[in-house]
Amino acid sequence: LKEKHKILHQLLQNSTSPVDL
Amino acid sequence: PEAADLRALARHLYEAYLKYFPLTKAKARAILSGKTGDNAPFVIHDMKSLMEGEQFINCRQIPILEHQQQTSALTLGHGGITAAHPGSEYGIMGMTSIGDQGPTDAVELRFFQSCQSRSAEAVREVTEFAKSIPGFINLDLNDQVTLLKYGVIEVLIIMMSPLMNKDGTLISYGQIFMTREFLKSLRKPFCQMMEPKFEFSVKFNTLELDDSDMALFLAVIILSGDRPGLLNVKPIEQLQETVLHSLELQLKLSHPDSLQLFAKLLQKMTDLRQIVTDHVHLIQLLKKTEVDMCLHPLLQEIMKDLY
Lengths: 21, 307
Prior knowledge:
The structure holds 2 protein chains of 2 kinds. Chain A is built from 1 helix and no strands. Chain A has one helix at 6-13. The radius of gyration of chain A is 8 Å and the shape is elongated. The relative contact order of chain A is 0.23. In chain B, 60% of the residues lie in helices and 4% in strands. Chain B has helices spanning 2-20, 25-32, 47-59, 72-75, 80-84, 103-131, 141-160, 180-185, 195-205, 211-222, 233-254, 261-289, 297-303; strands at 42-44, 164-165, 168-171, 176-179. The N and C termini of chain B lie far apart (42 Å). The chains are: A mainly alpha, B mainly alpha. The A-B interface holds A 1-2, 4-9, 11-13, 16-21 and B 70-71, 73-74, 117, 120-121, 123-124, 127-128, 131, 137, 141-142, 144-146, 148-149, 229, 296-298, 301-302, 304.
């Protein structure tokens, strides 16, 4: 599932640092 | 000791809520009830005021909160209303095009694009809040994705409720009030996007939850063990049960005269699922009918195969 939801996965894995949405 | 643990959990989630969500219910209700003195929101009630609102927002100092500074790159860097604060505070419209060419439509276009940008940012905020729920980050990573995929739009709708009253909604971090009639005057199907959320919010607001109640309720929504495709339900249900106990105790303490408030709140979760289902179907309809429709990649991920 996480393969199909890469951005969500990235948000979950990263800390509070900015993510390029 | 158990009650003390439940109170500690409530405090922890309230602190996380204050940390990650920029406009609290307390602030929003102060703005809506005119208790903020000279800082009354600019009112958008027609196309002319929509364009003026864009100017208004560009000329005002942006109140970036301390905890937002590290993420400001996410919300800045686009034109128009987006540049100040993208669209609806907890916008869930998910659209980028609203019609033909022309100066008026250009403003509309920017507005709806900003709704998507703000929605994506709101998803990030909800994700951070979810990660602060004790035990959440220890769940199977696939299950964390599933809980967010299915829970995040429900959370956003709950977060929008304090910003709304029967006449309209606050947007742009409470700097603008957009009337319900104006949103209803947009062409189909855009005019159908927000009306169900107003109907829900007006009823939800009669429960008179405060921000600390909201924090616990949002955690309960996120920790729903019946989301499709979950791999390991038991630990999720165990976490939710603890938060439910904390919410029940919180409501007894903070609303002693409000009978059956806990039960009434849980019933709202059923209504929420229907609103989200209808919302996603509307977005799917938009994708088919609007040639220029382009969904934000994060919103695409969430809505794909959702319902």
